[in-house]
Design goal:
Distance between the termini of chain B: 32 Å
Number of strands of chain B: 10
Number of helices of chain B: 10
Oligomer: heterodimer
Strand content of chain A: under 5%
Strand order of the largest sheet of chain A: 1-2
Radius of gyration of chain A: 28 Å
Order of helices and strands of chain B: EEEHEEHEHHHHEHEHEEHH
CATH architecture of one domain in chain B: 3-Layer(aba) Sandwich
Shape of chain A: flat
CATH class of one domain in chain B: Alpha Beta
Strand order of the largest sheet of chain B: 6-7-8-3-9-10
Largest sheet of chain B: 6 strands, mixed
Radius of gyration of chain B: 18 Å
CATH topology of one domain in chain B: Rossmann fold
Largest interface: A-B, 22 and 35 residues
Strand content of chain B: 15-25%
Structural class of chain B: alpha/beta
Number of helices of chain A: 12
CATH superfamily of one domain in chain B: P-loop containing nucleotide triphosphate hydrolases
Helix content of chain B: 25-40%
Distance between the termini of chain A: 68 Å
Structural class of chain A: mainly alpha
Chain lengths: 283, 255
């Protein structure tokens, strides 16, 4: 046993010697030993994780090379898109935009008081960590899961999608905004507090004016994200353009699919650029 | 009247900032508190409006024991005491008038303050306060557009709009140049005399303290080592407060 341990020790010390870079000698005779590169640890770990993932997911490179080209075949069938299908997608597309808009507004409004409760301004440590903990758990629910839950309660359709988006926005906005509250300048807060105002009044009067621009900016960012989310919600039946997309794709009517994707892309790009422009002016 | 009796303040980390302070300040006095950084000036000031709670002793303001106040009664008490800070503590991204009006929210209901619903009376009070410090014409300009001296005047106007009987000033001119400092100190003096408001100011600049305050309190390591008229301050007393002789340069400003 003792010889075995000695043998392992010998191997380890030989390996260490092998990966230790040679000492550098300065002209005045001082010797500097460079540190062992962290790459000797990182590279084996990443290699292991990659090999493990490939075997778990049965990822096959040959399959990717052999069948991957089909993607371009499908894309080529979408061109030219069936422009006559446009009338059928106007309403679902509008529903998608309105779902995200209403969901985002509800979410960001309700997030405000809870962001305050999660921030350092909340004097109750227990209360603060209870709220933060609840929202950390709530945030782990993907928007698709929320949509399925909402559909079980409210039935299929755009209403369930709106509820899912509102809850999703609510949970992430609380975190995004309470972190901003904690970076605000506390001086004015102290000043208003010292004039006899309550903490809520001081927050509203002294902290929020510093943050309104960032609040609107975050809200718009959520809106952008939600329009992309809303497009896939239809896949589970929660209303919007996704329903039509899933149906046309299932029937393999590629020219219709082409038009849907084109309209979706243009919509997302237009809303993103409007939002970016507004946010640029806000900050 | 502000009455300290054997006031001790010990912070949770064990530091004793005030070690048994006793003093009385009458209504309408102009008092400067001088001493080294960390001597307890700031703690002394913030004990008065209970932004810091005292550990033991008695602190009465107009006959009320401050440490007995909590919640609503504490907030009502604080309305009568204004506070001005070294870094002005203005809400920079909003207008001057809104900064001054912010002093009025303490008198408003929660719904009124959430909607920022200020009455005409509130606005008149705010504008008059701005007029008193001579920057009425800046009312609708954003606070961050103003110079340091103007910002401190807005902060002073905010405090005046609160209609307090006491103003606590924590190093009000420490971040201003000498000329502006003198102007701001003149504003303090004007308000002290015109409205009979007690002013208690922590001061870095000894010469300004001696020039404007009628009474000077020297504090060293949490103990009051000098308390008397500004005329009574000399080289010896300053040496006692600061631990060594001050040079002419260190006195700063004009003689």
């Amino acid at each position: 046993m003792a010889t075995f341990i000695a043998m392992i020790k010998g191997i380890i010390s030989r390996m260490l010697k092998w990966i230790t870079p040679p000492p550098l000698v300065l002209s005045n005779g001082k010797v500097v030993r460079p540190a062992i590169s962290a790459m000797w640890i990182i590279i084996p770990i990443i290699t292991f994780l990659t090999v493990w993932s490939v075997s778990m997911t049965r990822f096959r490179l040959d399959m990717l090379l052999r069948r991957g080209g089909q993607f371009f075949v499908i894309v080529s069938r979408m061109i030219p898109p069936n422009y006559f299908y446009f009338d059928n997608i106007v309403n679902p597309m509008l529903a998608t935009i309105l779902m995200s808009l209403v969901g985002t507004i509800i979410g960001v409004v309700f997030a405000l008081p809870f962001a305050y409760a999660s921030s350092e301004l909340n004097q109750s440590k227990i209360g603060k960590f209870a709220v933060r903990g609840f929202f950390s758990i709530a945030r782990t629910l993907p928007v698709l899961v929320l949509a399925v839950l909402a559909m079980i309660i409210f039935g299929a359709g755009a209403f369930a999608g709106t509820v899912a988006i509102a809850i999703f926005t609510f949970t992430i906005m609380v975190k995004m905004f309470f972190e901003l509250i904690d970076t605000a300048d506390m001086g004015p807060f102290e000043a208003i507090l010292s004039s006899g105002a309550s903490r809520i009044q001081a927050f509203w009067t002294a902290i929020m004016p510093q943050l309104w621009g960032q609040y609107y900016s975050l809200s718009l960012y959520n809106l952008e994200m939600n329009i992309r989310n809303a497009a896939i919600l239809g896949y589970v039946g929660a209303g919007g353009i996704g329903i039509v997309l899933a149906e046309r794709l299932a029937w393999r009517v590629y020219p219709d699919v082409g038009l849907i994707l084109l309209v979706l892309m243009i919509t997302v790009l237009v809303i993103e650029s409007i939002s970016r422009e507004i946010r640029r002016r806000l900050l | 009247m502000i009455q300290f009796t054997d006031v001790v303040k010990r912070y949770p980390n064990g530091v004793e900032a005030l070690k048994g302070v006793s003093l009385t300040i009458e209504q309408g006095e102009f008092v400067a508190i001088i001493g080294l950084s960390g001597a307890g000036k700031s703690t002394l000031l913030r004990a008065i409006n209970q932004m810091h709670t005292i550990t033991s002793g008695s602190l009465k303001v107009n006959g009320v024991e401050v440490s007995s106040l909590k919640g609503k009664s504490l907030r009502r008490f604080r309305r009568g005491i204004g506070m001005v800070f070294q870094s002005f503590n203005l809400i920079k991204r909003t207008t001057v008038i809104k900064n001054v009006l912010a002093a009025r929210v303490a008198d408003m209901s929660i719904i009124q303050s959430l909607l920022s619903f200020y009455t005409k009376k509130d606005k008149i009070i705010a504008l008059e306060a701005l007029d008193q410090v001579g920057i009425l014409e800046k009312a609708y300009i954003r606070a961050d557009q103003l110079s340091g001296g103007q910002q401190q005047r807005v902060a002073l106007a905010r405090t005046v709009a609160q209609q307090p009987s006491i103003i606590l000033a924590d190093e009000p001119v420490a971040s201003l140049d000498p000329v502006t400092s003198a102007q701001v100190m003149n504003d303090f003096l004007k308000i002290n005399e015109a409205l009979n408001i007690t002013v208690v100011a922590n001061m870095h600049h000894v010469d300004l303290a001696l020039k404007y305050a009628r009474r000077v309190i020297g504090i060293k390591e949490g103990i009051i080592v000098f308390d008397g008229p500004a005329k009574g301050i000399n080289r010896e007393t300053l040496k006692e407060i600061y631990g060594r002789d001050l040079t002419e340069d260190e006195l700063m400003g004009e003689k």
